[in-house]
Amino acid sequence: MTEPTRDGEPSDAALIARWRGGDERAATILVERHAPAVSRFVASMGERGEVEEVVQDTFVRAFGSLDRFREASSLRTWLFSIARNLCRDRARANRRAPTVVAIDETHLLSSSDPLSAAVATETESRLRAAMERLTETQRAVFTLRVAEGWSYREIADVVETTEGAARVHYHNAVRLVKEYLDE
Amino acid sequence: MSECTKLEMKDLLPDLARGALAGPALAALEDHLATCASCRAELELVRAAQTVLGATPSVDTARIAAAVGRSSSIRRDATVAVAQARRRRAWSVAAPSRRVWLAAASIVAAVGVSVIASNTTRSPVEPGPAPTVAQVEQPSTPGPTTPEPTRPAAPRSTGRAELVMAGGVSDLADADLESLLRVLDDVDTELDVEPAVLLPVLEGDV
């Protein structure tokens, strides 16, 4: 488990200790450090329009229960676990009250070549559609491995499984995405 | 194109796509990619996925940090309130023992008075009637009072029976009893100030 390494910046553990001591600025630094990755993860889990709300809930919950945070694990893993649980809760709620969620294309590839851009847009749209076919666990594993570059050990902590099972989930996810794209 | 079965090579593709691979692992993967079309195709897939998933949605970190600060402040206030409530609860838990002491003291007092009264009535050398406590406490009870001289004809009751007759706590005067009840009511009132609404905050249901 590795903490984010930043030259000259305090570790997560040091910032948590400062926050527990009443330093509100420490919380701000931690939010700024981890919010981007958490927001990417939340977006990839299907939360398109309310990413910030979920990310905020993630941090509020995390800081609200820091007493239960085990120093042995990384804050990053813990934050992603909370974010994943929030996404699952919201997905369940949405299943009860289904709504049409449009695919967010606000950050698709830009290209000076219109044809290349169109092909890229098409590829990305199909890729998103393929990912939406994955199970929640497969999507989480795929995202954390591909987009965040996490180890299977870290991923296993987030999705509450074993390292070996996380690896199997990843390869199954890749296979399913390829099958969809080949259709 | 047949599917590559070398999972140990496939495992490294995300790292290669991120530029996070070096040394012998990088060399081994590059050698493999030179001969494996399946893994080259998968590498392209991984790169495309990184493009799609790597885009960071815009979030207002300052707003999130402010929300964390507000929540923390509320939590601290709630912690103080709950600590105060726990102190009150501790006092309330101790209160029953105070009630027990009060009741015990009342009973002891009643027993003492009853024993004295009993001894007084049993004593053959002391002349004259020896009214029981019940008789003393209920002077206004209508109806004829059993004359003392008729009692020796009946079997003597035990001291325990005398206590029951004496009525225990009921021997207290009405004013004293009301005072005792007021104290007990005050004790119960202390439990009503529990800030239950704050408890969920500490239970992590924020």
Describe the 3D structure:
The complex is a heterodimer of chains A (183) and B (206). With 183 residues, chain A is mostly helical. Chain A has 2 domains: 1-101, RNA polymerase sigma factor, region 2, helix turn helix motif (Rna Polymerase Sigma Factor, Chain: A, Orthogonal Bundle), CATH 1.10.1740.10; 110-183, Arc Repressor Mutant, subunit A (Orthogonal Bundle). Chain A is 67% helix and 0% strand. Chain A is built from 8 helices and no strands. Chain A has helices at residues 12-20, 24-44, 51-64, 75-96, 114-131, 136-146, 152-159, 163-182. In chain A, helix 3 packs across helix 4 (75-96). Residues 98-111 of chain A have low confidence and may be disordered. With 206 residues, chain B is an all-alpha fold. Chain B folds into 2 domains: 7-54, no CATH class; 95-197, no CATH class. Helices cover 67% and strands 0% of the residues of chain B. Chain B is built from 9 helices and no strands. Chain B has helices spanning 7-10, 13-17, 23-35, 37-54, 61-122, 133-137, 159-166, 174-191, 199-202. In chain B, helix 5 (61-122) crosses helix 7 (159-166) and helix 5 (61-122) runs antiparallel to helix 8. The two termini of chain B are 53 Å apart. The A-B interface holds A 24, 27-28, 31-32, 35-36, 39-40, 42-44, 51-52, 55-56, 59-61, 63-65, 68, 107, 109, 123-124, 127-128, 131, 142-143, 145-147, 149, 167, 171, 174, 177-178, 181 and B 7, 10-11, 14-15, 17-18, 20, 41-42, 45-46, 48-65, 67-69, 71-72, 75, 204, 206.
